[in-house]
Automatic annotation (TrEMBL):
This is DUF4928 family protein. It comes from the Bacteria. It comes from Enorma phocaeensis. Pfam families: DUF4928 (PF16280). InterPro entries: DUF4928.
Length: 305
């Protein structure tokens, strides 16, 4: 794209990587696009000379919404960052140094790509809340993964989170269990499922489909007991597909939320304090699995212990 090298140099030179700095340059780009060149930095200073003028949460939300982004980038919209005045002056100087006519549309798209990159690089969040059920906490993680997946078409965040949460629980029970990266396809590795435990083949999926049903049929033919672990609102889909394939009575279907919740309660001896410790151990183990088998650190779960 036009200006990419120049923008990269500016971004890294000025260390535009946090949410406040990104909020600032996104809003300034839109404001500069409506101004005449050269940009006069004095026009973008509040009366008390303390802040950059024109910044606001509603303004930022509108710009992001124009690009299909509904997540909140920065609640203060860049107003309170100490270095913003210097960054504004540097950005005005940068824009003034570009050959005219300046294509602000392309420049704004560059910064929007940086915003999406910022969102994609953030870990999933799990806040400590004693009033929240384990099922609801897991739902929250899956919702975050699904939302990120929508914002990054082609990525399978929800399925990866599901598989490695299952792996985290299984490894706590059986430390020697074999774990693979979520992108390692069964047919490429010769595995009969995502996890093989004795004569049981466990399959993890957020979207049960006919290909999975055929894998289950193959498991049965080879003397294995297949188990499907999916999200709660896909359990019925999986069972219907199995019934249509005449193997409904030979395959277990579990939903992830209950699979994890039951484990946390049982190993926490149904005590709230102990339950928090078990959940914390599960998340720590999940993060260790991500470190070992995945290359994307944004798959981590940040748990407010």
């Amino acid at each position: 794209m036009p200006y990419k090298d120049e923008l990269d140099d500016f971004r890294f030179g000025q260390k535009v990587k946090g949410k406040g700095a990104l909020a600032l340059v996104v809003q300034l780009t839109r404001a500069f696009s409506k101004d005449s060149l050269p940009i006069d930095p004095a026009d973008y200073v509040t009366g008390k000379q303390g802040q950059v003028a024109g910044l606001g949460e509603s303004n930022l939300r509108k710009i992001l919404a124009d690009h299909g982004i509904t997540r909140q980038l920065a609640k203060e919209a860049g107003r309170t960052n100490r270095g913003n005045m210097g960054l504004m002056h540097a950005y005005a100087e940068f824009i003034n140094g570009l050959p005219e006519p300046v294509d602000f549309y392309e420049i704004e798209n560059y910064w929007i790509a940086c915003v999406n990159e910022y969102f994609a690089g953030q870990p999933f969040k799990l806040a400590k809340d004693s009033s929240r059920s384990v099922t609801d906490a897991v739902n929250g993680l899956l919702e975050q993964a699904t939302r990120r997946q929508r914002e990054n078409p082609g990525m399978k965040y929800a399925g990866t989170v599901l598989q490695h949460l299952v792996a985290a629980k299984l490894e706590l029970l059986m430390p020697t269990i074999e774990i693979h990266g979520a992108s390692d396809a069964d047919d490429q590795t010769g595995r009969a499922g995502d996890f093989i435990i004795d004569d049981t083949a466990i399959h993890c999926t957020t979207a049960p489909a006919n290909l999975l049903i055929e894998k289950c049929r193959s498991n049965i033919e080879h003397g294995l007991n297949p188990v499907i672990i999916t999200i709660s609102d896909r359990v019925t889909t999986a069972r219907n597909l199995l019934e249509d394939a005449d193997i409904g009575g030979r395959v277990e279907v579990w939903d992830l939320q209950q699979f994890l919740s039951t484990n946390v309660y049982e190993h926490g001896f149904f005590n709230s304090n102990t339950r928090k410790n078990v959940l914390s151990e599960l998340i720590d183990n999940y993060n260790s699995i991500i470190d070992e088998f995945e290359t994307d650190p944004s798959l981590h779960i940040e748990y407010d212990k």
